[in-house]
Amino acid sequence: MAGFAEYEEFDATGIAGLIEKREVSPDELLDAALVRAEALNPKLNALVNLRVETARKHISEGLPEGPFHGVPFLLKDLGAEAVDFPSHNGSLLFADTEYSYDSELFARLKQTGLVTFGRTTSPEGGIGAVTEAQVYGGPTRNPWNLDHTSGGSSGGAGAAVAAGIVPAAHGSDGGGSVRIPASSCGLFGFKPTRARLPDGPASGEGWGGMAIEGFLTRSVRDTAALLDAVTGPDLGAPYWAPPMEGTFAEAMGKPPQRLRVAFQTTSFTGASLHPECRAAVEDAARLMLELGHEVEETTLDVDIYSLMCAWTSIVASGTALSVRERLQSRGRALERNEIEGVTRGALALAENISGADYLDALNDVHAFGRQMARLFVPFDVLITPTLAEPPAKVGRFKPVNEDFLDYRLGPEGILPYSPFTAAFNASGQPAVSIPLHWTADNLPVGVHFAAAFGQDELLMTLSAQVEKARPWFARRPPEANRFKGSQ
Prior knowledge:
487 residues; alpha+beta; 38% helix; eight-stranded mixed sheet; 16 helices; Amidase signature (AS) enzymes
């Protein structure tokens, strides 16, 4: 039963139901995940640091009786510190980093009964909208089309879930790193309000509070259940999100209220969108009308370039701190080939950022959040595409450019490609990429929905309504990039 042909017909919640009814065992499900990993990872390059015997040991010792008891799962190869799962953090410099503790996030995930058996690829330090880190020996590819990127920084997670290796995987999002792979791989990717999920004990915040954990899933209910399992601050957390009235799962079941929905068909920079992305937004706007919501077109008056200059300064400073701590812990100097061009560029930029400059950048981010709060007063939800284009070709954003500002903000950089997602990391608002559109050549295009700060439940209720109206679960990548029982 190693192939378990029905494996991909179920989301994580459905698989847990099969286990509860004793129709399949955790060991059989792990076998199903592993046989798919063996068949597909050579094409995708999405999985790393597999610890199969560790997973078997956890099963044999008895898994917690949580909502995902026995379901195969993968952690992102960035953060999510775990004693049993060393990490490269996407970098030769950090290769095989071991931890003496479990992050609070992973401790909570373990209590759900998930069977974690490895990690998924990430760009070095999480910098980038693609996953092409040298530590993995090549790029991570998109199961919808191997010539295209699966996104970043949770690109391995997106590829693994879309290909059917696991039904859900951990990700994290500091500038769109859950939502960009969700859009690129035809998945559901929800970024909660700032500080909704724990960061400890290693840190109190990531990238000035802009980074947050998350998940890549094929169903809304899986994300809701995973978020419910980990929501809430950990001990000593410096920030708390506004309390929720109920749970994410309960929000899914609420009758949707009539929402004021705005949609935008240009980039925040004012640039035009790829025709497929514009079509995706316009179709989503029509769907909102069909569902009974008030809908109007808008153009937000925001200086996204200035905001992203501040974002880039903060990320460069965070990168420099991580590299410095690594070098101090090992006691020897950095060798040039241990980090990639983009990271070298980030370090060079950080050298010229003073403490006052850093605080000024943080003030710019906070001012942007206040501006966004005012702009959202007339409406409840803003719709844009997740990306300004369909998934990029592999190699287009290869991390070799040593001019960090140009790599992120230049005319051929990340900002024109991804002009929407990082804005909501800066403002701390909840936002989600929903797989509602595919191009004529069968590439996914995510539609991005954002709500006001703290309005996670409203956004989850709307996501469930959209999923019911336009189900996507059965839509899968080409058979050539999925598991076939004869493999």
